[in-house]
Design a protein that fits this description.
This protein is of the alpha/beta class and 231 residues long. It is built from nine helices and eight strands. The longest helix is centred in the C-terminal third of the chain and has 14 residues, at 215-228.
Length: 231
């Protein structure tokens, strides 16, 4: 139908668009054929929001915008475009104006914060030998090892970039909390979810990588956002 939305997926730190692989496959199984996944540079919030806006503007029709991890900050910043009908946060930051992912993490430090390591070029990594236990403890070791080796490190400075406008103040929100998240404290996720007045908050017994380990439940939430905001 003409009003069928495009689902635009926005990845976070330490991975690229392919982190959404299981969600993409599940969406496609359920008949969704309008799916796009942004590949952000992870150089600054402004750069990543602009790249995401360009993707949204290429879409003819409504968009349901989905962000994982730091991608939540990106959709918060970029989600005010008029064709964005819903925001879905997957174990993600949902900062208010003047807040940054780094600042929010300092307020309520996650369990694995000590496993982050900056390099001499200014990029911030998850220590490869700590990636499984930090990011994806509910995935098979081989799957987590591939993620660790292929991780896309952000510029560390991007962690401190403040949101300038919070799209969740004007757009309907759905939020998935990972109760075993070691990269964003689960209580921080709960607080941010409540603050957005999310229409539904789903708690999953999952790691930070819930988009990979619990793709079916994540897609359930995306589908609810699609149904409830369909024109």
């Amino acid at each position: 139908m003409a009003d069928k939305p495009t689902i635009v997926l926005v990845h976070g730190f330490w991975g690229g668009a392919a982190h959404w692989a299981n969600v993409i496959v599940e969406l496609n199984k359920r008949g969704h054929d309008r799916i796009r996944a942004v590949e952000n540079p992870l150089t600054s919030l402004a750069d990543d929001a602009e790249r995401t806006r360009k993707m949204i503007k290429q879409v003819d029709g409504p968009v349901v915008l989905v962000g994982h991890s730091y991608g939540g900050a990106v959709i918060t910043e970029a989600g005010d475009l008029p064709n964005v009908t819903a925001l879905v946060y997957v174990a993600a930051f949902a900062p208010a104006e003047g807040e940054s992912p780094g600042g929010l993490s300092q307020e309520v430090p996650p369990a694995a914060i000590e496993n982050l390591a900056p390099d001499s070029d200014g990029y911030l990594w998850i220590r490869q030998d700590k990636f499984h236990e930090s990011f994806a403890q509910d995935l098979a070791p081989d799957e987590a090892f591939v993620m660790a080796v292929t991780q896309k490190a952000p510029l560390a400075s991007a962690f401190g970039d403040n949101v300038t406008a919070a799209a969740w103040r004007n757009k309907p929100v759905w939020y998935q909390v990972s109760t075993e998240d070691r990269m964003i404290h689960p209580d921080n996720e709960r607080r941010m979810a409540r603050r957005t007045n999310a229409r539904r908050i789903v708690e999953l017994d999952a790691s930070h990588a819930s988009l990979a380990s619990r793709a079916e439940e994540v897609v359930d939430l995306i589908e609810e956002a699609v149904r409830e905001t369909a024109g």
